[in-house]
């Protein structure tokens, strides 16, 4: 990491636009992170990967009116929770719906006369949690209150990820708890005024990510991610059963207090954070499965750098690609030093959204999403006086990742939760990975100066690759014609021929990203939705078009469903507009030059 580069970036931030509260903006653009989620939903409509649900059992004398009033007060306070997502001609916008658009659905289970009402309660909760949001028509939050009897209720909250992150959960629980107490007492809630709304952040972000700031961020990530990239992965099923549901399951374990204390001591001695130590060990575990000395994992980071953003509910998460260098059989201490520099640089440059990373050279099979995080949220839970609040498991989720290892402080231990796509991974393999990871943590704190190859089976639990698998992978199909050759052909082609060239080029890019060199080239009549691209592939497609053609793929509601040939028509129109603008600028310059000469 270049400290002068970081200092230059900090100076640019200080001179850049300041986050200011708008005057009740009637509409605003989506933030770039929101735009990424919205595009993915258009490519795969009906997905519920971004439905975040919390099902709580409330036992005691619940004041239902105070609870509903508290929820409505939180929604009225945070515009993000009532944002309507509306595509326009140029971009996708968010508009705050009136607070009255939100309501709580009530179900009194006693009226059904069921001997075992929990079964019906689960079916109702599952339907609400797994129903896609119509973001253009309804608030991105739904609430359901299920009444078993006077002493037992279930509260279900379902929020779309496009307005919600892990930090937001704490804010929601804290404010709902405070509002409940106030309304139960018959008092007006007293909460500090918000200094901004999420829409203000979205406006600021698009102003900030321009010019020198964007250039410096892009320069850093281009250098950091150059060359062939290999994803760290756990071993998948030999014959993955792709159901299309992307069902997610979770296995848990823990890092006991004594081991956690030793990990902290090692981290402190090496001048690194606990996150860096845990990440380095996880990368070492993945190396054992992939046999790669240069691999990456993705890590979500909450970008709430301004104090005005800390009390806001909203989606402030960016995904960082963290690349580990395990080459040369270093000691674990040396691995920590390498990881520290890499993580520090990534966090200093965390403002660049994933979709702006550019054209990455991903190795075949590396489009998978392996996520890793050490949670640092306050962990606030809903607290209602006189009511016992406990969580209820509800299997209604689906995954937009392959695996996600999340570590969270739980008293004097670390709780490990490894969520995984059940289509791709076997439960026993996931459980074994958790055991191997904990065993590896024991080894690295016991022998931090040992070379990494000396650690036991945990650091290399995968069987040796077959010769075919060990061989260098066949290069992905290249889009033809590419780069300057394509631009040269486009510059001399007639309008219809331009569209044809662009359509063939888009089909070639999509074929390459599918990762099967033996498969026939895709037809330009196919759409991105039909191709079933995941998030990384989709934004690689957009980046490759930008780098080869020189204009952006228009982000619109039709992007997912339009045939590649129709997208090509839009690109051809944009190219023509660019040429007209350049021609006009050239003529104006020549006219002004002539004037000077005449004088």
TrEMBL record:
Pfam families noted in UniProt: Condensation (PF00668), PP-binding (PF00550)
Location of the region described as Disordered in the Swiss-Prot/TrEMBL record: 456-481
InterPro entries registered for this protein in UniProt: ACP-like_sf, CAT-like_dom_sf, Condensation_dom, PKS_PP-bd, PP-bd_ACP
Biological processes per GO annotation: amino acid activation for nonribosomal peptide biosynthetic process; enterobactin biosynthetic process
Positions of transmembrane segments: none
Lineage top rank: taxon: Bacteria
Keyword set, alphabetical order: Phosphopantetheine, Phosphoprotein
Record-level Gene Ontology MF annotations: 2,3-dihydroxybenzoate-serine ligase activity; phosphopantetheine binding
Carrier domain mapped to chain residues: 500-575
Record-level GO cellular component terms: cytosol; enterobactin synthetase complex
Name this polypeptide is given: C and PCP domain protein
Organism of origin: Sorangium cellulosum (Polyangium cellulosum)
Lineage: Bacteria, Pseudomonadati, Myxococcota, Polyangia, Polyangiales
